[in-house]
Write a structure and sequence with these properties.
172 residues, Growth Hormone, Chain: A, 2 domains, D-glucose transmembrane transporter activity, transmembrane
């Protein structure tokens, strides 16, 4: 419920990245808690708090935010297909984690969450470099920003915004 208000105040990208970083720290804390559990009995509390924080940070960022971003990155035509693909990827990854976690936990022991921490770091870096802020922007503004990045990366020149592009095609 709070996410509805939080997403409009803080912005999608910042919530997504803070959620990923919080999950990363929680995964590291779970690893430390599990690794030191045999030496310190109170580490079970550290692990429990880390699990609760992991879920909280997921619900703040990586849980709901991708659905906002996917809906805002695509125009009305391809949006249903994009949301379908995002949902398929989401549930497929959930299925794989659910089916494989016990085997990976048996193999890695208390260090099972290091894998999740590494993946969360990769997701954070991807989001930092590739995911735009979509708060308060129209689809056209987001698409123009992607075109500017693409053109500046390939040509080294300033790309046209969509309006400039449309004006140029009207004049021609």
């Amino acid at each position: 419920f709070l996410q509805l208000f939080l997403v409009e105040k803080a912005g999608r990208r910042s919530l997504f990245m803070s959620g990923l970083m919080g999950m990363l720290v929680s995964a590291v804390a779970m690893t430390v808690g599990l690794a030191l559990l045999s030496q310190f009995a109170w580490m079970s509390y550290v692990s429990m708090v880390a699990i609760f924080l992991f879920v909280i940070f997921f619900e703040v960022g990586p849980g709901p935010i991708p659905w906002f971003i996917v809906a805002e990155l695509f125009s009305q035509g391809p949006r249903p297909a994009a949301i379908t693909i995002a949902g398929f990827c989401n549930w497929t990854c959930n299925f794989i984690v659910g089916m494989c976690f016990q085997y990976i936990a048996d193999l890695c022991g208390p260090y099972v969450f290091v894998i999740f921490a590494a993946l969360l770091l990769a997701f954070f870096l991807f989001a930092y470099f590739k995911v735009p802020e979509t708060k308060g922007k129209s689809f056209e503004e987001i698409a123009a920003a992607f075109r500017r990045k693409k053109h500046s990366a390939t040509r080294g020149a300033k790309a046209m915004t969509e309006l400039e592009d449309l004006r140029g095609s009207e004049e021609a």
